[in-house]
Amino acid sequence: MRLPYETRPIKNVKHLLVSDKTTVIVVRADKPSMTVVSHNKEYLKAVSTVVKNGTLEVKSAISGQQDVVVQGNNNVVFGGGGGTTVVTGDNNIVAGKDVYQNCKKLTNDKGSIGSSCSSKRDNAIMMDESYVVISLPEIPTIFNNSASDVIVHDIQQEALTVVIGGVGDVQMTGELDELKVVSMDDGNLNAKLLFSKHVTIAQEGYGTIRARALDSSDVTIKSSGDVVIYGDPKEKRQLISNNGNISFKGNPPYNSEPAP
Q1: Residue 2 backbone zone (phi > 0: left; psi -120 to 50: alpha; other: beta)
Q2: How many whole angstroms separate alpha carbon 200 and alpha carbon 59?
Q3: pTM given for the model
Q4: CB 64 within 8 A of CB 80
């Protein structure tokens, strides 16, 4: 079954900011393009892709403190964070915080399941099952401030900076001269298959940063997060001022260790 999608205009951008729970896939291509894909065509409208001052921000209009209103029968509803979900009709499965059906609150503050009825998949509304696929000649600076994954394939350029400010993960493949990583939250970075000559990492978060350094690695850890360096860089600099850990794995088979 072909999923609903929507193509949107895009030009080259300097920064990519992912703010909410929408998976973003970035690939290198000659011409810029952007496609939004979702399991439900109504949710396409809720995925915002706005370019301002050279920054493309991807976010969901449903998340945050906004309310979600669903009408009809046989729906599956996952409420957004913080808002109120209002469901009318029968045979609905709802999960989230502050969910009401026919004026009756169904879930507690911990987001327990509010209904055990069956659901038809064809009429399901999945609030977080969406993807934004972006093609660009050069990958911009990436800011992942969300709980979603950012996947970047086939990087071929001189330098790239990645900033992790949320709990979502970042995965990257390709070749670089210089990779700079700043981690400030629980998100992980898997760059084992990104062959970078020089890697600079500032670990201030609590996730695991995995990178491959061919010539040099410069790692600073100011938290209890971990850093794993693959490859065999001749120059190694490290400064650890907290309970974090750095380890060097050399050149094991690429599939010998699972990604975080």
Answers
A1: beta
A2: 28
A3: 0.73
A4: yes
CA distance 122 to 51: 33
Q: Of the candidates 30, 80, 24, which has an alpha carbon nearest to the alpha carbon of residue 49?
A: 24
For the chain, give every residue range classified as CATH 2.160.20.120. Answer: 5-59+130-250
For the domain bounded by 5-59+130-250, which CATH number is listed? 2.160.20.120
- β-pair type (189-203, 170-183): parallel
Give the position of tokens 């045979």.
Answer: 91
Q: What is the pLDDT of residues 92-127, one digit of tens each?
A: 444 444 444 444 444 444 333 333 333 333 333 334
Smallest Cα–Cα separation from 215: which of 229, 228, 234, 201?
Answer: 234
